[in-house]
UniProtKB/TrEMBL annotation, chains A, B:
InterPro entries in the record: ADH-like_C, ER, GroES-like_sf, MDR_fam, NAD(P)-bd_dom_sf
Domain Enoyl reductase (ER): 26-263
MF GO annotations: oxidoreductase activity, acting on the CH-CH group of donors, NAD or NADP as acceptor
Name the UniProt record assigns to this protein: Alcohol dehydrogenase superfamily, zinc-type
Transmembrane segments: 52-71
Superkingdom as given in the UniProt entry: Eukaryota
Assigned keywords, A-Z: Membrane, Oxidoreductase, Transmembrane, Transmembrane helix
Xref: SMART domains: PKS_ER (SM00829)
SUPFAM superfamilies membership: GroES-like, NAD(P)-binding Rossmann-fold domains
Pfam family, one: ADH_zinc_N
Amino acid sequence: AIDTYGVGKVVASGNPEFEKGDIVGGLLSWGEYSVIKPGGMLNKLNPMGFPLSYHVGVLAFSGLTAYAGFFEICKPKKGEKVFVSAASGSVGSLVGQYAKLFGCYVVGCAGSQDKVALLKEKLSFDDAFNYKEVKDLKSTLKRYFPDGIDIYFDNVGGEMQGAAVDNMNISGRVAVCGVISEYTDYEKRAAPSMMDVIYKRIKIQGFLAGDYLNKFADFFTTTSDHLRTGNIKPLEDISKGVESIPSAFISLFRAQNVGKKMVKIAEE
Amino acid sequence: AIDTYGVGKVVASGNPEFEKGDIVGGLLSWGEYSVIKPGGMLNKLNPMGFPLSYHVGVLAFSGLTAYAGFFEICKPKKGEKVFVSAASGSVGSLVGQYAKLFGCYVVGCAGSQDKVALLKEKLSFDDAFNYKEVKDLKSTLKRYFPDGIDIYFDNVGGEMQGAAVDNMNISGRVAVCGVISEYTDYEKRAAPSMMDVIYKRIKIQGFLAGDYLNKFADFFTTTSDHLRTGNIKPLEDISKGVESIPSAFISLFRAQNVGKKMVKIAEE
């Protein structure tokens, strides 16, 4: 069985901590039923009035990744200029929204006109562009950031990272969250100019959300408040049924998803 | 006139703050005599019993660069494994010595057997190698660091940076101090694997010593104490006379210097 992070309902339990009917979140396997052995990563979950899907995406690791990456790695200041790549993805879409709520100027890029429209209209990004329609990334970023980029939240690596560093201000920060370009090679792998990194004292830092579990409570409270007031709009892309699992993965690698890609195995 | 950081003796002064015979350090121009206008960067200098050359190198910007880069950017812990490139250069040679005195394990690389011997014998590096004799940087670093690199003090950029990141431990730090490879293109420019940067939570950070003037007093006291006890041995490569200026620059770009390259214009 292949493991995944998921949410489910207990149908039978030999463990006194869990009862039939409990909602749980944790490491499940792909499929209609999972058998969790003692020592497995599983917790009871209080949905708190939110759809269960929120507890897989925006209120789980995708959200924590965006929150910790933006606040802990990028250490933003109000008014700073933030660029987010793969901005309609599960993490990027949240980073942009956290950054806007915090008082930054935010531009995102994505791979279609529909995604760009979504970023500007639904998620209130200050601006957005379709990177597939762009010939020269460096001059494009110069146009969107005439005063330079302070923070680049990097979900793609490669050429985009090089172009962002070229446009970065002094003391700029790059949070390296994902490297779509290295998975699929659809962009050439490219090096940021280390001369720029030195003269502009740029910090490029990789991170994993798992290192920030001590921030989970902060993250959860802040994010659920914003979800209740409608200040944060989670993007979800849910396909249905075990049979949709392979196509879900394919759409992920083809970047066809908008927001968090999830598979719903059964109705609640 | 081309400016440079230098030390000189006042031969005439229209400024009451400076008298004939004062030793001064600051922004001078290349040549036997410099005229410093009001507002120029110039300070009286107390040699404190050290050769004047120390006040151009080990006790000036080269030293501060090594000190701030190692302690402020790399934030070392005792016992960590440190790799220094261009380790026989003005900055690298000091980084290695600071790291050893601090209690780290230090390996340097340099471009000749003589330089390698110097690092091991005179400067007490734990080990050193000649990068020009190496076919595969990645596996070479693996051999010198079987338990991985915690800190890479990068004076060259390029391929060496990629190979160091490949060998880095979790939470590794790269201080980007110089990029010889980007100046001269003698190495191919190469990208570190961003996948490694993420999974190993690596920080790659550029810096300039000028941002750490607030650490100058610490640096100066620590370093002059080590110089007096002989715990730090400055490497100096001094050529003589105005006529040696062009060849001094050439030797620098050919990496023929050992330690801080300086030109002595006149006897004290």
